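An example makes the point: we print one protein in full, the chain in one-letter code, the fold tokenised, without further comment:
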Amino acid sequence: MPMKYVPFVPEPVEGQAVLGNFNRILKYRGADDVSMVLQRGMPLYEMEKKERVGKSDSGNMVIRGECVSACAYLKEHGIRVDLVYIDPPFASGADYGKKVYVRCNPKLAEAMRQAEEELDLDELKAFEEKMYGDIWDKEKYLNWMYENLMAIKSVMSETASIYVHLDYHIGHYVKILLDEIFGEDNFINEIVWCYNGPGSPGMRQFNRKHDTIFWYAKSSDYCFFDQHIRVKHNEKTLENFKKGLEGSGFISNNYDLDAKGKIPEDWWQFAIAGRFPIDGIKRVNYATEKPFALVERIIQASSMEGMLIADFFGGSGVTSAVAHKLGRKFIHCDIGINSIQTTRDRLFTDGAQFDVFEIQDGVQLYRNPVQTMDKIKSLVQGLKQDDTLSSFWAGSISDSKIGTIPVYIPNLEDSTSKLLDTVQMNRIIHQAIPELESTVNKVIVYYIDLADRKEMEEFIKNDDSTTVEIELRDLKNILDDVVIGDYAEFHCEPIQEDLFRGYAVTIDRFVSDRVIQKIREFNQKACLNSSSKKPYKPIEISEEGLELLEFLSLDCTASEGEWHSDSEIKIDKNGYVIQNGTKTKDFWDARICSREKPLRIKIRNICGDETEWLIDGILEG
């Protein structure tokens, strides 16, 4: 349960035409009716500090959790943001994956040095894992987006503005929500980001190669620093102005060109984020990463040094990385663990100071909501997909005595569904159940939070509009079984090598059942698709399992509480070591060293799961 609800009033700007606020969303033929109304405010949960990077309280934050819950924390603590850039899901209907690379076994490091020019490591040692699914129906997406935008507005300073990055799938609907929330008078620009790229074979339309960014202000006093974003006049403009040509748009007698250049148009051309650091920043392995230069222009135009920049759908962490480079403070928020780890590692390499937090909302996520939902569905005994049911139901269970039992599971990406209250139960009783076939005698309703179970059972009992039995089940009982910890064997000893004197922790064995299962599934599918002309060589893991490690960190400061990374290494996809943020050409030797005595170790596997162990029994020499 939330500690409390942080109040805010979700009312449209006076005099505005409205689209949203839950029971005013546009309806589509065949879509579910939506009647939930934001009544309680933003849920405020405890937020646990997981790690401090750097020695001081910088005010920079990396938060794992939902946008609305993060905004509740900021509002409760009086934290106001000066600029927001968000790149939320586009409702594109696509699945986004992360390519996972099996590392080199350090026991075979010398052999790998000799063979690395002959091996195509990307092909032989990689598999893909789903990060999140951008699959929504329009009504649910717009309800979800409305609540997020209202929450964000509640923590914006009076001079703040917001850039909302979308594309053709849903952007035109969200613009109407933005008009309602911020007011048409506070709309500043519709920015079109253009980029090049090949089309698909057999296309029957012009190549879709642009995104749209809507820029709105909190008030008319918004910040705009045009001197930071001037671009040079082109040669033709300078030539026309020099000659004072009639019809050129520049008459030298009454107009002067600014020597600093011109303010850019509202269409921008930046190369899409790719593999190489074409705009001054190295790319990371993240599907939806946006160009550094694009975000840089936004931050330079709408903030100044020392201001606080927030990205509540932070993804790869470009916004925070750019903010740090430009001398701004930052807040990065995302619900996926891959986002948090990618951003944390990126900022650590850049020398940023920040704290890593996790919102304690009672939901222990697998790695991201999509994977958790998939896992939950596999753990609900007997649950099967049922195409005869609406999208409200996760599927159904067959019972020999009762028949078909539809099952409702709350969407972990949608904070409005986490608390089962009388509003949601009323919807289930009066909308979802009546749509079921008359042969249905029972439904199962899972919940994450429940205000009062006895009160809810009494509410169901007193509503005589249905004879269908409603069974309540706590989803957290299933979620507790979702996360299976990794296993590691290691030993620690003092060392003195050349000029280095300290301690070395050697990893002797590492086991991750979850990653091994993913590799087995990948091998099985790949083998089915192989042929005699193109055989598939399965990914094999050694008995030591050291190929499954991506990151190690030693805490020499404290044995409990927030983490202090006093020494860390990251192993890249080719087996090379990144030591405390610095790249090397050394292969990993199964060790991590520190000058001070380590108290605990953190290990991250190649899929992103992190586990901590205490270190004891160090043999002093």
Notes: Confidence is low (pLDDT under 50) at residues 15-38, 111-124, 274-279. Residues 550 and 606 are 5 Å apart (CA to CA). The longest strand covers residues 500-511.
